[in-house]
């Protein structure tokens, strides 16, 4: 772990998956950009907190234009190591096993 990673507060790491989930929801609504104001409203936090959290990892948005959702999602997935594929196995093929196999959310998140 490098020095910069050690300086990232744990609460910021805890919030990153919330950002990913919210950005995925916005993407499903065909939004391509989001402001820190709108993201803050959705997550019940301030735009300044959003910007501060993201600043730990670099620059992602443009002032007055907001964040490109696809780019921000890609970067957050890299930070959280969610951009890899995971081979999985379901044992038992009853109703629950069928439901797990057919659930698209797992496929969308890289579980094969």
Topology:
Layout: H1 3-6, H2 10-28, E1 33-34, H3 36-43, H4 47-55, E2 61-62, E3 66-68, H5 69-79, H6 95-102, H7 104-108
Antiparallel strand pairs: 1-3, 2-3
Helix pairs in contact: 2-5, 3-4
Strand content: 5-15%
Question: Unreliable runs, pLDDT <50, ≥5 residues?
Answer: none
> Span from first to last CA?
29 Å
The SS-based structural class is mainly alpha
> Largest beta sheet, briefly?
3 strands, antiparallel
Order of helices and strands: HHEHHEEHHH
On the 0-100 scale, what is the average pLDDT? 87
Number of strands: 3
CATH topology term of the largest domain:
Arc Repressor Mutant, subunit A
Global morphology: elongated
Examine the secondary-structure arrangement and name the CATH architecture of the largest domain.
Answer: Orthogonal Bundle
Q: Helical region count?
A: 7
The CATH C-level name of the largest domain is: Mainly Alpha
Verbal overview:
The structure is a single chain. With 112 residues, this protein is mainly α. It has 2 domains: 3-81, Orthogonal Bundle (Arc Repressor Mutant, subunit A), CATH 1.10.10; 84-112, no CATH class. The protein contains 7 helices and 3 strands, in the order H-H-E-H-H-E-E-H-H-H. Strand 2 and strand 3 (66-68) form a beta hairpin. Helix 2 (10-28) runs antiparallel to helix 5 and helix 3 (36-43) crosses helix 4 (47-55). The protein is elongated, with a radius of gyration of 16 Å. The chain starts with a helix and ends with a helix.
């Amino acid at each position: 772990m490098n020095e910069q990673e050690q300086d990232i507060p744990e609460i910021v790491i805890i919030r990153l998956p919330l950002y990913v989930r919210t950005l995925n929801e916005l993407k499903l609504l065909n939004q391509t950009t989001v402001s820190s104001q709108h993201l803050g409203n959705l997550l019940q936090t301030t735009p300044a907190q959003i910007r501060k959290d993201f600043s730990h990892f670099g620059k992602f948005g443009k002032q007055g234009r907001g964040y490109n959702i696809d780019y921000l999602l890609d970067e957050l997935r890299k930070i959280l190591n969610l951009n890899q594929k995971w081979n999985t196995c379901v044992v038992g093929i009853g109703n629950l096993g069928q439901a797990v196999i057919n659930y698209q959310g797992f496929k969308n998140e890289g579980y094969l």
